[in-house]
């Protein structure tokens, strides 16, 4: 890659990493974006630490003083509901010398005491006490400093989902999400009382780049081959049906070619897909509340609610509904290591039988020993290792369905009244994997803007 | 069931896993036996919380299908295991019913992986079994396997662990 050096900054020509020539039927992403550690650091600096990153759901911090710990890019963050009920996000860093104040994944704390020198902060992040301050001989300048925990620049909530940004230079969260909220709403509105968190997280870690899991969830092409053993289990189950009515797996559309699918890209890098005309809708956990949903939100939106669908919110969070619904939070660790924090969210007030079905379907598909997700996890590592073939600069995995791509909404989107930038619609047999244009446009935009602003500061 | 019989039962059960004789292992559970591997809080109620595995009957058969499928990619190259079982205590609850508590350490390693430094995964766990006698044979009605790291990093697991 071309690079010139300005001061201490190596300038990269990021245009060379994303080869978008849609009029010629070409879209490619350079393999260095998956394997270059310096590029990973730049992604953290220019994307993750300069945009909206998902932190957590309201249900995880339901009570006053509840907190969870997470990261924005590389930076440790606490999301806490203060004793006053307000939710705040601050860096998990003692103002004095830097130790993390919360050392657990989750908890409840009225105050945070740093073990190192005993500084104490309340659940709103205010510094309550500097140990032995009186005798400390502190200067006026020190006394004039704020000792409170550093609040993140922006924290906003979309219907229970908290996002934060370390910089002010972001649009409002609502503008950032744009019309992809149609999809998010299709989960939230399944109950008039919205969602609750079903405990028992299906977290996983894989030896591969963070973009692999993001790409995977917008790819239906891998289902038949990678999840063939899951398919086998389902076929076996069909054979045994009647003897056992307890159907914890629904894989209808791997074998049902009558289904159709729409893929979408939205501004700011978000993607979505929506499987239509699925069979066996009655086996989905949400079916139990379908009638009520239909009456409340109308037939069109209820149909979207019940469908298999995915919303990938760039860069940090994936809403995935295959057999059942899982929310995945991506936490990049290094160029070839990624943690995924995965949660089961479910409509409040769901009948117990439907809830049990949901939980069992969730485990069957997603868990560390599930029948599907481990195959994805294993293949990410394998792809990361294969992509070390540095003689090669490009993969060919972004072209399937590219001929069906259209600007703006397809018929389904127009019907529903939302406005994607790009659409693909057709038979499920397309199994498109072309809808990465939007995410990588955003990747490129953020990398260039990040570099420009870093250079301007030199 | 005597202490020695309980030990032999468990040694045999985990040996079936180590030897990947999954059909025989699955048969130990009969139609009603429940196999539970919790996640996070290992005492959380599995009927209203998600687990790693909470399976019986058809769900065990689904896992067996996957285990025996040549498309179980997460198990390629195959994950070999060694189970060691210790600290066994038997609580006889009747002529036909016993509860056994035991500690286990499960070692997992991928055989013939191109990456020869593929990590050896070590999974210490506590386990709880309930056995009932059916037609003269002891069957597992309940097996709970609670990993020490249930609230932390879990590696890719074989179909049954």
Quickly list its features:
heterodimer; A: about 450 residues; alpha+beta; Rieske Iron-sulfur Protein; Naphthalene 1,2-dioxygenase Alpha Subunit, Chain A, domain 1; 2 domains; ten-stranded antiparallel beta sheet; four-stranded antiparallel beta sheet; B: about 160 residues; Nuclear Transport Factor 2, Chain: A; about 40% strand
Précis, in short:
The complex is a heterodimer of chains A (458) and B (161). By secondary structure, chain A is an alpha+beta fold.
Question: Any overview of this molecule?
Answer:
- The complex is a heterodimer of chains A (458) and B (161).
- Chain A is α+β, with helices and mostly antiparallel strands and 458 residues long.
- Chain A folds into two domains: 53-156, Rieske [2Fe-2S] iron-sulphur domain (Rieske Iron-sulfur Protein, 3-layer Sandwich), CATH 2.102.10; 177-449, Alpha-Beta Complex (Naphthalene 1,2-dioxygenase Alpha Subunit, Chain A, domain 1).
- Chain A contains 15 helices and 24 strands.
- In chain A, the strands form six sheets. In chain A, strands 15, 16, 17, 18, 19, 20, 21, 22, 23 and 24 form a ten-stranded antiparallel beta sheet that branches.
- In chain A, α2 packs across α15 (437-456) and α5 (181-188) packs across α11.
- Chain A is globular, with a radius of gyration of 23 Å.
- Chain B has a six-stranded mixed beta sheet.
- Chain B has 161 residues and is an alpha+beta fold.
- Chain B is built from three helices and six strands.
- Chain B has helices at 3-18, 22-27, 58-68; strands at 34-37, 53-56, 79-94, 97-110, 121-134, 137-147.
- The radius of gyration of chain B is 16 Å and the shape is globular.
- Chain A binds chain B through residues 105, 198-205, 225-226, 228-234, 236-237, 240, 244, 246, 248-249, 344, 355-356, 359-360, 362-364, 367-369, 371, 374-375, 377-379, 385, and chain B through 37-41, 44, 47-55, 57-59, 61-63, 65-66, 69, 71-74, 76, 114-115, 151, 153-159, 161.
